[in-house]
Amino acid sequence: MTANHLRALILVSVAVVIAVTLAGAGVAFLLGAIAGATIAVLFAAAYLLRPLQAVRDDAARIAAGDLGARVRLRPPGPAGQMADALNRVAERFEEQMETASEGQSRLAAALNSSVDPVSALDREGRILFANIAFEATFGRSLEEIAGKPFAYVLADEDVVDAIRASREQGLRKISIIEQSGHRFYQVVTTPIAGGGEWAVLIVFHDLTDVQRTEQIRRDFVANVSHELRTPLAALKSVVETLAEGALEDESVALDFLRRADAEVDRLVQLVEELLELSRIESGDQPLVLRETDVAALLAEAVERLRPQAERAHLNLTLELSPGLGLAHIDGSRIERAVLNLLHNAIKFTPSGGDVTLAAQRDDGSLLVQVRDTGAGISQSDLSRIFERFYKVDQSRASGGSGLGLALVKHAVEAHGGSVSVESAPTRGSLFSFRIPIGN
Ligand code: ADP
Question: CA 357, CA 21: separation in Å to the nearest integer?
């Protein structure tokens, strides 16, 4: 039934009422007629309004954000046109929401591909988003931290202040923090203009490597200065003593000159080791690979240090497995590495002890070992022993610079090999290196 039908019904009802009245019927009959007509009108209205109510209910679902909702009934006339218009609105709404959610997924994917931890906060400073790097760095999932204040994840005063400044004053702030595990981060908090709910973006840049490099540089300068100071101070005191009259006494003067000579040697050795290290580290010293007689090379190293071992009353032995043959290596670099190891073994083994250089071919590689029965090294020092300038006991007057083992490691690693050490205090040491040489 349409509005026209309703209108006709009302007219008919009114006509009936008037006709009955005119016919001179009684008042009671008139009243009955009016009531009957009213009920008929109400029924008709209710029947007519039902489709409009269905339209209204569907429109309410659309308004509530149900993206799939549509006005299902299409009444004829203007109500039907209204239903069509509502459906077009709903379609546009759905399209726009799809585009927005695609944009959001793309944004989340882009932020998740960042290796830097990133988080977005709302106007109250609560977490709305955290990328995968953020979850991994702080060991918390987005699910766990969403809606929580940022301080729940990182209670750092500087960062909390920076977030407040970005939220309230629209300022970009940079702070540096140290996280547990000695990792350093530069934290940049930026207000997001036009970001909807996203009010502040926080990005963490890992500065640990930069800090570490800076620390290494500082340590290097400090170590070099320290190593230079000792021989220079000794030289100065020799010169002063000579100037104060020791020069007059020829034998005393000679003794002092010998000491000065030893200090100059120490300085020269230090500078040479530093130069070699710097050349190796900058890649300026490529390997000079040649077919090398391994047994001859190792025998030569032992013979060079035999006088020193004899002076220290040590038994220096060479143990070579048969068939060492030729290897494609940089002979002079490997010989220097072996000399360094032997030199240390002799230096740190008390008289009467044994120092052995052994070598064998083992599963496609050359295994070289220097064994001694000397002072040994504690477990805590072993992990750092190959670091440059590292000396087990700074007070142990070895006269070394702490660079020897760093050079050994470099030489071996340049050949694609590896170094290792086994030792215990008073039980001697076993330094080994292995380089691949093929079968
Ligand atoms: P250095 O020039 O001081 O000998 P190295 O790098 O060769 O420098 O050695 C580093 C430190 O390792 C030494 O100062 C010493 O304390 C320890 N070390 C090296 N080799 C031995 C060894 N065979 N026995 C005991 N300690 C050793």
Answer: 137
